[in-house]
């Protein structure tokens, strides 16, 4: 008689959202609607910012890139994201950024969600940018320059369309093939898409300027003379020590808004400035404790590096979304013996 091991208990099973299921979920809902909904979850969590455990991400740097863990928790759930950033990867046929995440119950430590986060991070990054743009961009903004047309480009354009109401995006990348890719992907989205031959040309007539480049170096994607009064800069490419995109003089003329200062001062554009240079935390703007955009001529800068609470919000959103969909599978992830003290006996009994 063939031995049939007992089926895993319900407590052993954890919902898993694969890349395939994530893409299915996003396409069924629509990318723009997903980012609108994600922004609502992110804003809700920013508005209760003091409730969270907060720490700069734990980073392991090498000559080739960085691998990071991004943890946070509130009183109910703990979440973390594993993410890499390897600029050389594209030349070798790999993604520059990949990620996965876990959401767990604080009450018992059991995971309640395992999720791909390569696609989800692209969505939450764009949703966060556009959410911040809602507070900082000039009123009535219609044109965005998008400098750096890699994997994040189309998500940014669609998020700003859906959440901030832009109708035109001006594209530039040092790689013309990247610009052509983005322009093709944005056809039929309702956006007017203009491909530009330089960063200077892309910025012309734009009220919002987004920079998203991948080189791990101090770079000057925007020079001081390119930014006039009244611009909102959404700087999302700088995300590690030694990597920036903006000339220092732009920072000195801007009002700077950040997610979590202890992390941004290490990784963001403000690593170019003194350690005590004044910045404004976004959660305080969203709660009305600090001012965002104050006048039409103000230059605002979102020095975005990505913070764990945004990933927590994204995982919380997906966990809630699973109640409306079957785009997940259950994985046997947790050993759950009948007697919690007898893990070895469970192993022995599995021999048959």
UniProtKB/TrEMBL annotation:
InterPro entries membership: NAD(P)-bd_dom_sf, ODC_Mu_crystall, ODC_N
A Pfam family: OCD_Mu_crystall
Keywords per UniProt: Plasmid
Keyword match Cell cycle: no
Domain of life per record: Bacteria
Signal sequence region: none
PANTHER family recorded: KETIMINE REDUCTASE MU-CRYSTALLIN
Descriptive protein name: Ornithine cyclodeaminase
